[in-house]
Amino acid sequence: MYKVLIADDEKNIRLGIQAMIKREYPDFETFIASDGQEALDSILENKPDIVITDIKMPRMDGIQLIKELQQLEEIETSIVILSGYDDFTYAKEAIKHKVKDYLLKPVNRAELFNTLNTIIEELENSQKMTFQHLDDYRASQLNYILLNPNIQQEVVEDLYRKMKIESYPDGYYVGIVQLDGDIDGEDFLNKINELLHSSIDSIPFLDKDGRVTIITADFEQFSILKEQLGRDKHSIFTIGISEKEQDIREFKKTYGQAATAIKYHFLYPRRQIILYENIKEKPDVNSLPADLINKISNMLGTEREMEIKAILRQVMDFDVIAHSSINYLENLNMEINETIFKVFFKRLGEESLVTFELLNKIDNIYNFENFHEYFHALEDLLMRIHEYNKQVKAVYSEQKYMDRAIAYIRENYHKDLNLAVVANYISLNYSYFSHMFKEYIGQNFVDYLKMVRVESSKRLLKETDFKILEISEMVGYKNPKQFARVFRDVEGVSPKEYREMNG
Questions:
Q1: CATH H-level, domain 167-279: superfamily
Q2: 120, β-bridge pairs
Q3: What's the average model confidence in pLDDT over 347-355?
């Protein structure tokens, strides 16, 4: 709804314009004035969005009224002037003062409405830009408050004044909305803004993790969101809500409460609202089942697969986890990573990470949608390591695998040979074979192949008259420059120098 003031010393004209506006824009609030001074007093009192003023008026004419308004910083209004044909000189003077438009008397209905519609569109666009700027500013400053651990209280108070966030005499809540799906954070924020458009006390913004966070004095707003978002049957969402707080300076604390509450979405993915007051009493459990986790680690690679799974279910007892603070599950995951996974992969080296990419994901439980998805991923990774260890032990116990591999390399070094070809020949997984080869031989496959080829070329250089180009091809190098470079790297001299040194 907009406010419009009509100022004209002719009663019929001001009342006629007022009537036209009321019929076309019934939501508008209109005021009238019979001269410039009366108009100025009304403007100061009512702060209209649009002023339609005649130029020639008693006490204060329209030009003087415009000048007075432009000196008042607290007044922002769009001005339209009225004039007769004889007043065109005055109209030109008014236009210098950046009026929006001027209308000739008698006022044409269509021209009046066209002018008002143009002004309304400008006002709405301006408001959108102003609101967007304020929203962006609030989001950046609220995140600054959250991320800055040493921010001073007086700085916080100053920021709230600049953000135009007043105190909440009846208290406020902080809520964090988590939506499962591919919707972008900005798009979801826009959707939340649409659902909360009627609440002037609600401040939605995106936190540092891209989650929609809401500060509101009205708890009912969360119920509205639950109802509106719940209409999409395919939408799975959770709202974590803090306790009620009176002091806006305690925003960081209330945000922390909401952030803790939303974590329980991991355990209760179907619960749409989680209140901090309902989970804050869950006890912290400092004693972890470290002995059971060690058992799992020691049993990996044995023939006790069913026992490993049974102990894992004991470690991940959902009933215990659900009745404990979420910190317990976070610490439990950390202990498993430290005791089993990190030790395992440190021993195996980087080449194994290709096979076990899941490790990077399982490092953080919140990389998964919920507890059950996390548990199955954890069990899957453990079983893959279990099978890996079984095969490693089999390779160590039966050296025939490596003996076959070495024999194959020495018989076929002159061919286009690589690790994958040899691994396939002896029917072992590429990563397993890479690790086992290095453990068994003491050097990686590429270096070992170079050594075999150089040894053969040295014999040919000493005992035959083959040209170096021919020897290069005979030991598996189609490019003689590559052969010379490899030979020099291994022996320290070129093939030619080696032949000359050895007669």
A1: Reverse transcriptase/Diguanylate cyclase domain (3.30.70.270)
A2: none
A3: 56
